[in-house]
Each structure stands twice: as C-alpha cells, then as structure tokens.
Amino acid sequence: MQVLNIETVKQQLTMTMAIEAIEDLLQVQHKNPSWVKTPERLVIATHKDSDKHQTGSHLTMPSVVFDGSAEYAVVKLVTICPDNPARNKPTTVATITVSDTATGETLAFMDGIYVTQVRTAALSGVATKYMANPDSKTVAVVGTGGMAYEQLNAVLTVCPNITEVTLWNRTTDKAHDFKAAFERDYSQWDVTLTVCDTVEEAVKEADVINLATRATKGLFEVEQIKANAHINAVGAYQPNMKEVSDSVIESSAYVVIDDLEGGKHEAGGLIQAHDNTDCDWQWNKLSGQLIDLVSGELKVETGGDSKGITLFKSVGAASFDAAVALKIALAAKRDQLGQAVAL
Predict the structure, then answer these.
(1) Contacts of 276 (CB under 8 A, 6+ apart)
(2) What is the per-residue DSSP string for 20-84?
(3) What's the whole-number mean pLDDT along residues 272-284?
(4) 2-115+319-340 CATH fold
(5) Which CATH architecture has domain 124-316?
(6) Strand, helix or coil at 192?
(7) Per UniProt, what is one Pfam family of this protein (predicted)?
C-alpha cells in the first residue's frame, strides 16, 4: 500500500487531469451505468451550534468503479469543521482509501483534502465548459474560503479568455488574503483580481459567478446579475442553507445538478425553492444532471447574449472522488510514489 500525504497528492494532481477524470467517468457511467456503484452517503451532524462550536458534519462516501478491465473500491471519510479556519486548518478534512475488489488489496491511502478541493472545483469546471459563454471575460468569486482557490482555477482552465476577477467575502480581510495567495500560488493566470466591498458590486458585471458559502439566504437577486451569467454554486450544502435566491433559480434558463439523489437531500437552495409556494420552480423543472451535459443528451446554447442565466448546483458524490483518487492511486502503485507500507 502506498501512503500519500497532501504534498505528494498535490504533485500528482492537476486541474486538467481532474476535469478529464470526471468527464471520463460520466461517459463510462452513461454507456455502462452498472459499472459505477455509488450508494447514498452517510451524513452525521457533529456538535450543536454554541459559543464553543459551530455545527459540522461527518460523511462516509463509498463508491465501486469498474474501468473495463478491473474494479476498485474507493472510500472517502470527510469531517467538515466550520471552526477550523480560526485554527488555521482547512474546513474540510478528508482521507481516501483505494482498494482492488478482486483481491481486497489496499492500493493507496491518501490525504483527501486536496482531492476534495480539486474534484469539487473540477465539477464546476466541467459545468462551466458546457454551460458558460466561452468568450467570458469576468468571473466573480463569492466566498473566499479554501474551496474557492481551485474553483477559480477550474473556471480559468476552461475559460482562458477571462481577464478580470472580482472577489467578495463577508470578512473583507479574507478576500484580500485570497487575492494575495492566488496571485502568489496561481501565477500562471494573467488576471486582475479586485476586492469588492459588496456582493452586488462583485457580481453585477460577471459572466461567471462562483459561490462557495455557508449562507442561509440568497446572496443576490436576478436583477443584480447579467442576463446571461453562468453560476457555479458549491456551498449551501445543507437543507437549511441557501446562497442562490429563488428569483435567480426560477429565472434560470437551465438548472443542472451534479447528483440528483444527493441534491434532493442536501441542495438547500433548490430544496427551499421547491418548497416555497411563491417560487415558480419545482424539481420537475430541473434541466438535467452533469452526466447529461457530458454525454450530449442535454445541450446548452452558450454563445451570445440570449442564452439566459445558467445555474450549476454541486453537492458532490463519491464517484467523483473515486474517479480522481483512482488516477492518483494507480500512478502511485506504478511509480512507487509516497511511502510503501505493508499491512
């Protein structure tokens, strides 16, 4: 078994690799649905909101993937710790195991923090590739926590014409920290980053809007954004959370989710829109899932001003982690990466 720490994972995993891994998985799943088995993940709430702790959660996320020649079991264990930023630790902490189901041999045990960040971002990258105007010039980053770095990296990977990035965070200092860190660590992108005082200022001219927050109500209304903006919403991961307002959801020409089964339990914005009798959006108006975009069953006209608002909601699924982690694990076994440990 190869043990891979976060630095080794970072050396192996690129955004392009993650995007390709997810697209390949969805193509396989479309052609051979039985090759990918992903039961509903187990979510356990941790702590009660108090002066000492914010409510977090622990998730167990298994998946079994057959690639046409061999089958693998991939399990991710995640603990979401909202108090961690104050401890200078990531909010999402994770580990991943990859096993060969024929022999039961564990091929790799790896840190899952970076895998989670990159695969979550890569989902936004895939959605942006198929739903955003390819000539997009401006992206807004709303919520500048740990997930936001790779989410922006993913959008820039698929929309190379972007030159302007606007930033907003409830705590302005963290937006400035994001700006400095992104300019330092992602210097391959020739973009201008501007910190905005209000979310309205950040999103008003954005062609693409990235959301990654724990908000409990919509952050902006439909009249405050461009009529053909594309939105990637990866925050608001519990039913009581909401970062996309009902006015945006019901006005969107296309609403796509990565995993419908998980979304009906966890996609707070869509759940609340569906339950709101004053909102003209129901689950039966969902345009489709990410697999429909990649397979070509759902086509979005992305060019021109008339495409309308497009919305991608991500809740994540173990199969996406499996696709990315499996590539790393097989490379680790082949090249003896990390530390070899005998069980």
Answers:
(1) 246
(2) HHHHHHHHHHHH-GGGEE-PPPEEEEES-SSSS---EEEEEEEEEEE-SS-EEEEEEEEEE-TTG
(3) 95
(4) ornithine cyclodeaminase, domain 1 (3.30.1780)
(5) 3-Layer(aba) Sandwich (3.40)
(6) strand
(7) OCD_Mu_crystall
